[in-house]
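User: quick one, fold this
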Amino acid sequence: MLKKTRLRLVTLSENTAKWLWLLGEWGWSILVEADGLRLLFDTGLGSSAVHNADAMGVDLATVDKMALSHGHVDHTGGLRDVLERMRLTVGHSNFLELRHGGIEVIAHPEVWGLKFIKHPGEEEYSFRGIPFQKKELEERQGARFVESREPVWITDNVVWSGEIPMLNDYEKIVGICYLQEEGKDVGGGAGFVPDPLPDDAALYIKTDLGLVIVLGCAHRGIINTVHHAQALTGMDKVHMVVGGTHLIKASDYQMESTIRELKKMAVDRVGVSHCTGLESSLKLAAGLGMDVFFFNNAGNVITLS
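Assistant:
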């Protein structure tokens, strides 16, 4: 029998803010508290995660470790600022001191790829990768990267997904994401190839109500992500899916298929953030019902006990 655990999800950074004094900023960062662990998933685009943590009374120095969903800047741009806060921890005498052993950051090795975005009609490829060097974050901010393509079990009930298989015909990588091949001449668009985003990852949390699935951006598809969670954890019941769904440019076929599958799985709650888009959010709300659908903004706190 699954041990009951208290779960708390605190959204620190998202495109929109829930209340006064919080910043809305394109990106995503959420604090997950479960099994006595405090895990930060992504760091947002810039200063919003640290600012909002201060405004909400969240002490980043007490966060145990970090995990990244993928290497785009709107999920990693706050890395330096967040790591600076995390590397100061409370010592035995209640004074702040440098954390021993560094700060563990779970990530796919492909997060360091040279990631670019190019929208239809644009001439230039715009850099959207991690804006820091790995060596800098390790030597100056105390990061200790744990890189894996396979799932990483963080506690008995919390697992970082690793690579998510793409198994259906309606969820595809949006054709604006590219990688620059190292050492290649990029003149005239040469040297850029489509990014399959193998680093797109999520968090899966086992609770007595069912799985809670925390998305990053779901580039590889929300349904693919959920099915991977079920296969990995051995749990069929999905209680909640929350985070970025990357349905912002979804076709009617993808939207209809996504809604049909979520209803088929009888997901209790679906909280959308970041890369969902207003139009797709309205379609989800209409298709799932307002007893299931909700907006998940910066400042939102979800507690399951």
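User: anything notable?
Assistant: The chain is about 20% helix and 30% strand.
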